[in-house]
Write a structure and sequence with these properties.
Length: 247
């Protein structure tokens, strides 16, 4: 076992792409007798710490599930609060990320986002667009099934227009029509997916891309997930035997 206190994990098997289902903010707040949104705020601090740690460990892409297509079902006030987080994120967190060479990206249906949310994200992407460090990829209003439906619409339309032949549709091509196509080809599929808060499901997070991801579940609630917790997940990943169907 590699000591977790060590700054840099001496494991050559650092995942290139890590996905995180940042869950448990509401329960974290409830435990403190605070409103749920208090947990979402605390979750932003956790994200900042984990992003910088991931960059230091050599992770190339960190895709974080921030809001699912199903999360619109929540009370209006909570949704508004979450939608406002990117605005705060821009002023409070982006400068430090930028200094660390982090590039901001977004996946999900942006058309339904409030104007202020979208413009904060666009500014963050613009400011960091030339950075060559870790890509912090926000899954915002993202749902894996919606992503596939959109991809199917595009593909069918191109077939109807004669721009695409049915025989050309293979796994590679489908990948090109998904939201993760903005990432470079070798980095699209998460090697490791972490879910906090003890729930053992993926909740519509990257269903196509996670076909061979290693899954790591922890009971830790997202706002309590810190650098050491992240390193622990990396160590667990390093001990997995990935076979991809081989021997
Ligand atoms: C995750 O925490 C954040 C979002 C889904 C936006 P939750 O808000 O789901 O927290 P719990 O699961 O209710 O504790
Ligand atoms: C998944 O968490 C979505 C995000 C973390 C953004 P949820 O809390 O929405 O998932 P369920 O409802 O427990 O499956
Ligand atoms: Mg939850």
């Amino acid at each position: 076992m590699i000591p977790l206190t060590r700054q840099k994990i001496q494991n050559p098997l650092i995942p290139v792409h890590v996905g995180i289902i940042m869950d448990g903010n509401g329960r974290w707040a409830k435990k403190r007798l605070k409103p749920r949104v208090f947990g979402h705020k605390a979750g932003m601090d956790a994200l900042q710490k984990v992003t910088i740690e991931a960059a230091n460990q050599g992770v190339k892409v960190l895709t974080v599930y921030a809001f699912s297509t199903e999360n619109w079902k929540r009370p209006k006030d909570e949704v508004s609060f979450i939608m406002n987080l990117p605005v705060e994120f821009f002023d409070r967190y982006v400068p430090e990320l930028h200094k660390n060479g982090v590039k901001i990206a977004v996946i999900g249906d942006r058309s339904a986002l409030p104007k202020a949310t979208l413009s904060a994200l666009e500014r963050a992407m613009e400011v960091t667009k030339d950075n060559t460090g870790l890509v912090l990829n926000f899954a915002l209003n993202y749902g894996g099934r919606a992503e596939l439906v959109t991809a199917i619409h595009k593909i069918v339309r191109e077939v109807q227009e004669g721009a695409l032949n049915v025989n050309q549709i293979d796994e590679d091509l489908v990948g090109d029509y998904l939201e993760t196509a903005t990432l470079s080809k070798d980095y699209r599929d998460p090697d490791l997916i972490i879910r906090t808060s003890g729930e053992l499901r993926l909740s519509n997070f990257l269903p196509w891309q996670s076909a061979y991801s290693e899954l790591y579940f922890t009971d830790t609630l997202w706002p309590d997930f810190d650098e050491a917790a992240f390193r622990e997940a990396l160590v667990a990943f390093g001990q997995r035997k990935r076979r991809f169907g081989g021997v």
